[in-house]
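Section 4.2 – Deliverable D4.2 (structural model, holo form)

The reporting period included a commitment to supply a predicted holo structure for the target in complex with zinc ion. Inputs used:
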Amino acid sequence: MISLLKEDRMRSLRAWLGEFAADFDALLFPTECAACGIESGSAVFCGECEEKLLAGAGDACERCASRLGPWSRSDDGLCRWCRGRRLGFDAAFALGPYSEPLRTLCLRVKHPTDGWLARRLIDLLMKARRDAIERAIGVRPHYLGGFAPLVVPVPLHRLRNWTRGYNQAEAYARRLAAVLGIRYENALRRVVATPKLAGLSRTERAEVMREAFGVRPGYDKHVRGRVIALVDDVMTSGATCDSAARTLKQAGATRVVVVVIGRTDI
Ligand SMILES: [Zn+2]
Ligand SMILES: [Zn+2]
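Output (structure tokens):
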């Protein structure tokens, strides 16, 4: 009788623990698609949304990552905007156009509690463009020698960083470095307070951003002679990435490859 009672209690304890584990799982591992909210099992994105997100990564300008249409394609794989234009960076990759569902996902990642989503978006970008990104950065085994590439996030302005205490570009950059197995360094800082760029023309943005960045004291030695993967969440006019890339080149970087999640149409 006593043993039966014990068994019963054990059973209810097991059931309770099972329920607790399921709740805990649901809390840690979302069961709803992060993009559309439908049931997606243990996957972060449902099949349809993942397909849609991956489809946005292809057919883009090799230089600035903006989408190529039949009207904007040239023989050299560049868009009309990039042909004959001098840019601070040498190549750019994006997960896709900065439109839905990517726009809402990027906005969510601005909140520190949704940092896990930054990792999943980088994983998607890797799924779509890993080979091309590795080729552009020149990822190669360490035993081949030379300077290994470096991953650097675009910094937020100091004041904005203080108030929010979190830079989403760092979350993306850390994941990219971990996945590619290359070093991460927070090598840049903002040296000039810049106003919000929204509403400014491309020329005005370029002017505002011109001297916005500097290499952190003591970081020149990490940057010199290296290929840099420069990471941000969204590229709009390209003025921010252009200025950050020029700063890195002035410090001796040999090549700068921009990696972003969203790219606005130019
Ligand atoms: Zn979905
Ligand atoms: Zn282009």
